[in-house]
Amino acid sequence: MSEIRIEFNPEITSIPADEWNALMADKSGKSAGVNPFTRHEYLAALESSACVCTKTGWTPMHLIAYQGDRRVAVMPLYAKTHSYGEYIFDWAWAEAYERNQIDYYPKLVSAVPFTPVTGSRVGMCEELKEGEAAQVWSAITSSLLELMQLGGYSSWHVLFLPPDECEQFSNRGSLDRLGTQFHWQNHGYNSFDDFLARMNSRKRKDIRKERSRVAQLGLNIRFIDASEVTETQWQAFSHCYQMTYAKRSGHHGYLNLAFFKALAVSMPEQIKLLLVETKDEEGQTAKIIASALYFCSDTHLYGRYWGALEAVEDLHFEACYYQGIEYCIQHGLQTFDAGAQGEHKVSRGFEPIDIHSNHEIAHPGFRDAIEHFTHQEKAQVTCYIKEMTKGLPFKSGD
C-alpha cells in the first residue's frame, strides 16, 4: 500500500469542489443530495462571506489525505480560539483549564461551523480497499495528534459524527461523547392529520389549537425556492434573523446576508425560504414579519435560522415545526431536523436521537478527568433519552 500523506489547507477553495463533494458523497454518489452542510459550496460560502475566518475565531485548516498524488480523503478542520458556534459544549472544560492557569485555546475542531447537524466529517474515496481505508483512518488520527502536540493546541474535537465514524475514532483511542437532539420521523404518513391520528387525544387537540390560533390571523405562510427569492425577501429574512438573535443573545448572529445570498447562487436546489407575511385589506401581501431557512437532502429536511419581527402566539411552532412536518409528508422525506435542543419538541412528536462526538486531550491529567466525565455523562444521557422517549405523545403500543 502506498504511504498516506496528510496536508492542511487554509482555504477550501483551493480544493476542487467536484473532488471535495465526490469524497463527501455517500455510497450512492449523490453528494449534492446527501448532506447540504458538508458540501464544498456551503463551507466555501462561510469563508467567502468572512463568517469563518481568523477574526471570527475559526481559522480554516482543512485536512487532506493523499495516496501518492491522489486525494483520497478530506476533513473540514478549524483552529478555534473560543467554543462558540459548536453546540457540543465544552465550556466547563475550558473553565477548569483557566482555574488551573492552563490554556485551553487554541484547540482544533472538525465540524460545520454554527451548524449542529450530524453528517460525515471524513469524506473518503470509495475505491480504497479495506486495508487502505484503515490506513487512512490511522493516518488522520496520527496527524491530528501530531498537529495538536507540535502546534500547541490543547485538544482536538470531531463533532456531530455518524456512528460509524465515531467508532473509527474511538477504536484509535479518542474519547467518545454522547448527546441528544429531537428529530421528527416520517412513519409513512399520508397527511398531517394522519400524523396527528397516531397521537393521544389530548396532544392531538393541543396541536390543533396551536395551528388554529395562527390560522385565524390570516397570515400568508409559504415556502419559496431559493432561486426565486428576491433581493427584498433576502434582506427581510436577514433582518428577521439578526433581530431575533440580538434579542436572544445580544449580538446579530454568526451569519450575514452575504453568506445566505452566496448559498442561493451556489446550491439553490437544496434551499427553501419560508416567509410569514401579513395581508392588507385587499388580501395582498403587506409585509414580512417572520421567516426561516430550510435545507433539503434526498431524505432529510433541516430547519434553520428562524427570526421574527413581531411576537405572535404559536407562530414559532407553526413556522418551524408544523410547516416542516407537512413539507416532509408531502415530499416523502424521512427525517425533519428542526435544530438543536428543545424538550418542548417531544410533545409535538419529535423523537430523541443519539448525537456523537470524539475528543482527544493533550494534558494527561485533564484527559483522565474528561474521560471519567464522558463515561458519567453517557450514562446520564442514556437515561435522559429513555425518559424523553416515554414522554412521546403517541398512543400506547405505537
From TrEMBL:
Gene3D superfamilies: 3.40.630.30. GO terms for molecular function: transferase activity. It comes from the Bacteria. SUPFAM superfamilies: Acyl-CoA N-acyltransferases (Nat). Keywords: Transferase. This is N-acetyltransferase.
